[in-house]
Amino acid sequence: MTRHYNFCAGPAALPTAVLERAQREMLDYQGRGLSVMEMSHRSGEYVAIAEKAEADLRSLLAVPDNYRVLFTQGGATQQFAAVPYNLLGQGGTANFVETGIWGKKAIQEARHLFGGAHVAASSVANGHTKVPSQEAILLSDDAAYLHVTPNETIGGLAYDYTPRGLRGDGVEVPLVADLSSTILSGPLDVSDYGIIYAGAQKNIGPAGLVLVIVRDDLLDRARGDMPTLFSYRELAAAGSMINTPATYSWYLAGLVFEWLKDDIGGLVAMDAINARKAAKLYAAIDQSALYSNPIAVPNRSRMNVPFVLADDRLDGDFLREADAAGLLNLKGHRSVGGMRASLYNAVPEAAVDALVAFMADFEQRRG
After folding, report:
1. Is the dihedral of CA 84, 175, 181, 230 positive or negative?
2. Which of 56, 102, 104, 331 is catalytic?
3. What is the pLDDT of residues 28-60, one digit of tens each?
4. 259: annotated active-site residue
5. Of 118, 108, 176, 113, residue with least CA distance to 143
6. Triad 81, 86, 87: Cα angle to 5°
7. What's the pLDDT tens digit per position in 152-172?
8. How far apart are CA 86 and CA 222, in angstroms?
9. Which residues have C-beta within 8 Å of that of residue 43, sequence separation ≥ 6?
10. Coil, helix or strand for 100?
11. What does pTM read for this prediction?
């Protein structure tokens, strides 16, 4: 069997060591004679798996004691509805910074459900190539919270600072962040945020799981008409088990957390690896006459690197030859075209080296 290099934006690569361990435990988990997929989520064995996963995640991110960690379902897209349901119970308006497609979808969902949303700042005018400054973020007078997408997976646009939700009257509202593509890629100060949410299928584990980290004081701001499964308070009270959770995805996420702690050495070490990977690929793009990246240098994503070829007639050949070389899933999102290499934690540095070498060879032959 040959494992190729997977640059997919999600579902994304998983660490080989994690997959190998899951393979060993697939039919017989620690001598119990059954798979984790077959366990009752109420069993002592599975509760221990779930509790260890949360403890390891808390350790990795240094999650403060006044935050709840929830493992839920529905994809990060479901949180576009869950967040306003949980935070608009005392009135006010959801505020957003729009920096790309996912931020736009969050705005659309708030408007669909509640009739309004305030765009406090946007990068539309510059084609989503540079994030708005803190000074450009102008909240509504009744802002209940500020939602940001610190890394836009499709466009490859990332913040180079942590925004604050400051209203004109000086009141700071909770900061809500969709960290689906960057969580666990490096150290993070959880206390900067009121709510963090992230789909699992990039840096956490397989699809089917969503991580939510919510500050305790925000658990009592929910609307009364909210579906029970959306309620952060109910999920926290039930240990994320109001209904049957995505048990196998949760188990695999726990293995990823162990891998980050024990094999990688924590998020500081992971951060250094990710910085090297991104630097190598951006250098190859910047030094090339064939490839280019449109994002302002301070706002370039380390996780999702889009690039275009000077002659888009070569796109098909590039993708076919890359696939044949074992470099998979480099096609850009249909909304922007070109190429995109996602460099999540499980993508090894050797994969980036192989991609850079292929790009140089392709340019020499076809550029």
Report:
1. negative
2. 102
3. 999 999 999 999 999 999 999 999 999 999 999
4. no
5. 118
6. 105
7. 999 999 999 999 999 999 999
8. 4
9. none
10. coil
11. 0.96
Express each pLDDT in 283-341 by its tens digit. 999 999 999 999 999 999 999 999 999 999 999 999 999 999 999 999 998 878 899 99
Cα 291–294–299 angle (5° rounding)? 125
Q: Which of 253, 224, 216 is nearest to 55 (CA)?
A: 253
**Active-site residue identified among 56, 104, 130, 202:** 202
Residues 6 or more apart whose Cβ sits within 8 Å of residue 237: none
Quickly tell me which residue has 């379902």 as its tokens.
73
Residue 53 structure tokens: 């996963």
**Secondary element (H or E) of residue 199:** strand 195-199
Tell me which DSSP letter residue 22 carries.
H
Contact 331, 303 (CB under 8 A): no
261 is catalytic: no
The residue among 139, 140, 144 whose CA lies nearest residue 85 is 144
102 as an active site residue: the answer is yes
Of 56, 104, 130, 178, catalytic: 178
| Helix segments in 179-290, DSSP class H | 232-237, 247-258, 267-286
Helix (H) or strand (E) holding 80: helix 75-87
